[in-house]
C-alpha cells in the first residue's frame, strides 16, 4: 500500500478531535442537536487550521446512518465513503480550477437531484474566493434558496474577497491560528502513536515555525523523519528547513544593540554562507524585535506568543532599545524582507537594513523625550552639559534680554568650556551670524533714518534676509519712546510684518538699537495722507437789471437770498 502522509493519516474524524477550534465545534454540535442546520456555511481562516476537515466532519454528521448526530460513528458505510472520498452525496469542488460560470451552471443542474445514499447532498467548495464575478452571480440564487436536501460549505483563506451578497447568504465561522502549545501537544501524540522518536525541543521548534497551521506542522514532522533514521533533533529541523536557531538571533540582536557594524555584517555573512535564506533571517529578526517591543511595553504579558519565551533574554535585550527604535527596526526589517523577495541579490537589502539599525536614531519620539528632559532640567535649575572643546557664548550683562532675537552688534563673551562637558548648540534664530563691536544706542528722538538703517543692517547681519526683504519695503516715519511707526505703500508687506514672528524680531532689534522697549506699528501710506479737499465750486456771477421800485418785492428778495445775490446800482456797476 502506498505511503500516506502524516497530515492525511491524522486528519480529525469527529468534532472532539478538532484541534484549536473549540468555538466552532461546540457551535456546530449544538446546531446538530437542535436540528438547526443551515443551508450554507462559510469557513474562513488561515491555511492548515481545519476548514476542510470540519466540512467533512459536518458532512458525516449529516449523513451518518445514526444521525444527524454530533458524533458520527465513522464505521457505517456512509461515514466510510465520505472518509475515503467516494461518497456520491458529498462533492468537493476546487474553485481554483473550476472558477468559471460554466462549472457553476453544471453545479446548479446537479443540485436538483436527490441524494443517493444519505439525507443531504453536501457541496464543499474550497478556495471559493477564486470564483469569478460571473460565477458568484450564477451561484447567488441557488445559494439563497437551495433544495431542502442540499447544504453548501464554502471554505476560503481570503474572506475579504468574498462578495457581500455571498456573505449575507451564509453562516460564517472564523477559524483561528492554532496555538504553539496545542500544536506541540498534537505532534507529541502523533509521534507516540506512530512510533517516531522526536526530541521535545524539536517538537517545540516545529510548532513555533508552523505559524499556527497544524497541517504544516505535520508536514514538517513527516519530512524530518526521513532525514535520519534515529531521533529527530532540533538540529535536524534547522538543517532541513533552513531555520535560524534562537542563539543566532540573540547574537545578531546583541550586535545591533551595541551598534557594532563589523560584528553584524560578519554574522550575516556567516549565516548566508551556511545556507540560511536571507529573507528567513530578516523575518526571524523581525519576529524577535516584535517580542522585544511587546515585552518592553508590557513585561507581565503572557497570552501573546513570543519568539522567545525566555524572559531573561527578553529583559536583557530589550533594555538597550527605546520603543521608537524597536518600531523603526521592525519596519526596516519587514521592508528589507519584501525587497529581498524580488531583488536580484537578496543580501543587499538585508545589509542595508542592518546598517540602518546600527546607525539608528530614535526619531521624533526620541527627540521629544530628550527635549522634554532638557526642559525639565532647565526648569529645575540643573546645569545643562555642554559639548567638549567649544566655547560657551554668553551675552553681555548690560544688554537687555531678547525674547527671540539677539542683536548682531551684541558682543558675546567667550568662556572656555570645562573639560569633559558639552555645549548646548544655540538656536539659529537667537545667535548672530557675526560678531561686531557694540554700536552706541540711538535715542528715540534722534533721526529716524539712522535708526531705520541700523534696524535693516541688524536683519542682514543676523541672516534674516527674508524679513529684511519684506520690511525694507516700508519706511520708518516716526520713533518715540514707546512706538516705531513704519509706513508701507502696499498691503502685503504691511500685513506680513504685522505677523507675530516678524513683529517680534523687529521689536527686539528696535529694543537693542534704542535701549528701550519699542512697539512696532504698521500703517499704509494712504492712511496717513488726508485727501486734498476740492475747492468750492465757483458760482457764476449773473447781473440782473431791476427797477429800483421793485427792489423790495418779496419774490426778488427770496431770489437774492437763495442765490446769495445783491443789488448793484448803475453807478457802482460802471
UniProtKB/TrEMBL annotation:
Keywords annotated in UniProt: ATP-binding, DNA replication, DNA-directed DNA polymerase, Helicase, Hydrolase, Metal-binding, Nucleotide-binding, Nucleotidyltransferase, Transferase, Zinc
Main enzyme class: transferase
SMART domains named in the record: AAA
MF terms in GO: ATP binding; DNA binding; DNA-directed DNA polymerase activity; helicase activity; hydrolase activity; metal ion binding
Keyword Nucleotidyltransferase: yes
Matching NCBIfam families: dnaX_nterm, PRK05563.1
Family: Belongs to the DnaX/STICHEL family.
Name under which the protein is recorded: DNA-directed DNA polymerase
Organism, scientific name: bioreactor metagenome
Amino acid at each position: 500500500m502506498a505511503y500516506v502522509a502524516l497530515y492525511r493519516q491524522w486528519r480529525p474524524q469527529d468534532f472532539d478531535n478538532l484541534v484549536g477550534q473549540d468555538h466552532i465545534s461546540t457551535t456546530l454540535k449544538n446546531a446538530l442537536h437542535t436540528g438547526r442546520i443551515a443551508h450554507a456555511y462559510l469557513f474562513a481562516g488561515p491555511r492548515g487550521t481545519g476548514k476542510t476537515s470540519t466540512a467533512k466532519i459536518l458532512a458525516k454528521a449529516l449523513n451518518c446512518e445514526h444521525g444527524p448526530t454530533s458524533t458520527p460513528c465513522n464505521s457505517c458505510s456512509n461515514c466510510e465513503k465520505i472518509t475515503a472520498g467516494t461518497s456520491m452525496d458529498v462533492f468537493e469542488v476546487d474553485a481554483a480550477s473550476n472558477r468559471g460560470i460554466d462549472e457553476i451552471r453544471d453545479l446548479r443542474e446537479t443540485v436538483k437531484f436527490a441524494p443517493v445514499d444519505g439525507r443531504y447532498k453536501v457541496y464543499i467548495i474550497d478556495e471559493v474566493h477564486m470564483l469569478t464575478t460571473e460565477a458568484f452571480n450564477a451561484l447567488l440564487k441557488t445559494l439563497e434558496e437551495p433544495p431542502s436536501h442540499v447544504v453548501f460549505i464554502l471554505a476560503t483563506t481570503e474572506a475579504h474577497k468574498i462578495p457581500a451578497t455571498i456573505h449575507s447568504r451564509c453562516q460564517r465561522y472564523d477559524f483561528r491560528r492554532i496555538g504553539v502549545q496545542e500544536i506541540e501537544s498534537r505532534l507529541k501524540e502523533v509521534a507516540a502513536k506512530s512510533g517516531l522518536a522526536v526530541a521535545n525541543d524539536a517538537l517545540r521548534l516545529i510548532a513555533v515555525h508552523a505559524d499556527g497551521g497544524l497541517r504544516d506542522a505535520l508536514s514538517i514532522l513527516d519530512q524530518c523523519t526521513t532525514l535520519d533514521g534515529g531521533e529527530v533533533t532540533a538540529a535536524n529541523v534547522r538543517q532541513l528547513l533552513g531555520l535560524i536557531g534562537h542563539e543566532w538571533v540573540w547574537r545578531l540582536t546583541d550586535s545591533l544593540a551595541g551598534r557594532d557594524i563589523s560584528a553584524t555584517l560578519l554574522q550575516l555573512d556567516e549565516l548566508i554562507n551556511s545556507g540560511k535564506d536571507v529573507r528567513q533571517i530578516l523575518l526571524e529578526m523581525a519576529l524577535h524585535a516584535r517580542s522585544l517591543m511587546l515585552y518592553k511595553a508590557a513585561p507581565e504579558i503572557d497570552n501573546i506568543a513570543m519568539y522567545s519565551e525566555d524572559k531573561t533574554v527578553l529583559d536583557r535585550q530589550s533594555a538597550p532599545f527605546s520603543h521608537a527604535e524597536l518600531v523603526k527596526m521592525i519596519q526596516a526589517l519587514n521592508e528589507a524582507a519584501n525587497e529581498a523577495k524580488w531583488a536580484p541579490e537578496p543580501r543587499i537589502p538585508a545589509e542595508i537594513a542592518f546598517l540602518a539599525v546600527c546607525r539608528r536614531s530614535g526619531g521624533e519620539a526620541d527627540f521629544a523625550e530628550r527635549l522634554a528632559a532638557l526642559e525639565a532640567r532647565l526648569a529645575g535649575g540643573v546645569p545643562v552639559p555642554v559639548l567638549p572643546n567649544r566655547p560657551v557664548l554668553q551675552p553681555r550683562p548690560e544688554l537687555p534680554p531678547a525674547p527671540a532675537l539677539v542683536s548682531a552688534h551684541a558682543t558675546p563673551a567667550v568662556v572656555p568650556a570645562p573639560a569633559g562637558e558639552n555645549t548646548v548648540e544655540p538656536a539659529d534664530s537667537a545667535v548672530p551670524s557675526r560678531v561686531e563691536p557694540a554700536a552706541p544706542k540711538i535715542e528715540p528722538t534722534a533721526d529716524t533714518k539712522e535708526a531705520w538703517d541700523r534696524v535693516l543692517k541688524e536683519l542682514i547681519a543676523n541672516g534674516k534676509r527674508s524679513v529684511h526683504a519684506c520690511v525694507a519695503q516700508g519706511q520708518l516715519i516716526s520713533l518715540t519712546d514707546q512706538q516705531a511707526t513704519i509706513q508701507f505703500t502696499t498691503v502685503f508687506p504691511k500685513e506680513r510684518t504685522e505677523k507675530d514672528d516678524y513683529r517680534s524680531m523687529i521689536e527686539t532689534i528696535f529694543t537693542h538699537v534704542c535701549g528701550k522697549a519699542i512697539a512696532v506699528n504698521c500703517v499704509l501710506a494712504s492712511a496717513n495722507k488726508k485727501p486734498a479737499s476740492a475747492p468750492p465750486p465757483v458760482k457764476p456771477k449773473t447781473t440782473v437789471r431791476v427797477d429800483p421800485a421793485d427792489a423790495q418785492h418779496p419774490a426778488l428778495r427770496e431770489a437774492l437770498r437763495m442765490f446769495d445775490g445783491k443789488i448793484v446800482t448803475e453807478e457802482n456797476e460802471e
